[in-house]
Design a protein that fits this description.
The structure holds 2 protein chains of 2 kinds. By secondary structure, chain A is α/β, with parallel strands linked by helices. Helix content of chain A is about 45%, strand content about 20%. Chain A has one domain: 3-Layer(aba) Sandwich (Rossmann fold). Chain A has a 5-stranded parallel beta sheet with strand order 2-1-3-4-5, sandwiched between helices. In chain A, α3 links the parallel β3 and β4. In chain A, α2 packs parallel to α3. By secondary structure, chain B is of the alpha+beta class. Chain B has 2 domains: about 60 residues; about 150 residues, Histidine kinase-like ATPase, C-terminal domain (Heat Shock Protein 90), CATH 3.30.565.10. Chain B is about 45% helix and about 20% strand. In chain B, the strands form 2 sheets. A 5-stranded mixed beta sheet of chain B has the order 2-4-5-7-6, covered by helices on one side. A two-stranded antiparallel sheet of chain B has the order 1-3.
């Protein structure tokens, strides 16, 4: 069973992502800050990380960079899942090198398909 | 501000959609009906928020054009693809006339398509089943690129024609079963055209149809 780490500080958004992923047969791990996200990613090496961007402490982009910089987690695909969708926000996420961009509010079909695609291609 | 407005909508749109999709079991008819209302109202609110944020950005002088040089015929055909299914559902014929000199244009491609898509979706919305939509693109003598959408719809009375470009104005009292849109589409479209140094106009005869045209200075 594929394991997805959800990094999300909003309780309702966490519940939504967790429930959809579990209903689709994934095992989920959770972190509510960027720092915690990095720690859990390194400790548990999930198959995928779903990363909110606006977080307290280090933001999602910084957390992503730390995950990429660590040899044990550098190949894990990371998806930005964010309500920050202006062209500037998008280009920052793209420039950082995330594997995919998913906007909030969620598009259920796109969300499920993107996660499926990235967990299936993961080595 | 966008982030703060969109975050609660994630729960409204997301939780209603997973229930509609029966991810957590069967629903009765009433539950399905209400959830679809919650979902579509959430989507409507999202469209409103997006349009209002765009408008306020333009009014604050913060909207920047992302200029690139693109093929106008391809952009037009892209916008038409997005509306074709809806037109077909209503038996509306969709045709395009492109003058041979219409080629490349330097503009904000995304906004260019949004302008055209707004014209097209209005035309479909106000044209009875079995009608016809015509898209025309030409280059005028004073070096203006002109793009228009004509329909065989319900038309707009002369005294109402200026008001259609105002926010939250839908003129006339016609029943339309394609009740969608934010009421900000043409107001926003007008601003997008003006950001390109262009202008927007309407010609219409009540009961016969309308033609919406935008012109922007030709640049390659």
């Amino acid at each position: 069973m594929k394991v997805v780490l959800i990094v999300e500080d909003n309780e309702k958004n966490m519940k939504l992502a967790r429930d959809i992923l579990q209903a689709k047969g994934y095992t989920t791990l959770e972190a509510v800050t960027g720092e915690e996200g990095v720690q859990v990613a390194i400790a548990q090496t999930p198959d995928l990380v779903l990363m909110d961007i606006q977080l307290l402490g280090i933001n999602g982009i910084e957390a992503f960079k730390q995950i990429r910089a660590n040899p044990s987690t550098q190949t894990i695909p990371v998806i930005a899942f964010t309500a920050s969708v202006t062209p500037t926000d998008r280009s920052q996420v793209t420039a950082a090198g995330f594997d995919a961009f998913l906007s909030k509010p969620i598009d259920l079909k796109e969300f499920v398909a993107t996660i499926k695609r990235l967990t299936e291609t993961a080595v | 501000m966008s982030h703060e407005l969109r975050t609660p909508l994630n729960a409204i749109i997301g939780f209603s959609e997973v229930l509609i999709e029966r991810m957590f079991g069967e629903l009765n008819e009433k539950q399905d009906d209400y959830l679809k209302d919650i979902f579509s109202s959430g989507k409507h609110l999202l469209a409103l928020i997006n349009d209002i944020l765009d408008l306020s950005k333009i009014e604050a002088g913060c909207m920047e054009l992302e200029l690139s040089t693109f093929e106008v015929p391809a952009a037009i055909s892209n916008a038409m693809i997005l509306i074709r299914e809806r037109a077909t559902q209503h038996g509306i014929d969709l045709v395009c006339h492109l003058a041979p000199e219409v080629g490349e244009q330097r503009a904000d491609e995304r906004k260019f398509k949004q302008i055209l898509l707004n014209f097209l979706s209005n035309a479909v919305k106000f044209t009875p089943d079995g009608g016809k939509l015509e898209v025309r693109a030409t280059v005028e003598e004073d070096n203006l690129l002109s793009v228009s959408v004509s329909d065989t719809g319900i038309g707009i009375a002369p005294e109402d024609q200026a008001a259609v470009f105002e926010e939250f104005r839908q003129v006339g009292h016609h029943y339309t079963n394609k009740n969608e849109g934010t009421g900000l589409g043409l107001a926003l479209t007008k601003r997008f055209v003006e950001l390109h140094g262009g202008a927007l106009s309407v010609r219409s005869v009540l009961g016969e149809g309308s033609t919406f045209t935008f012109t922007i200075p030709r640049q390659v």
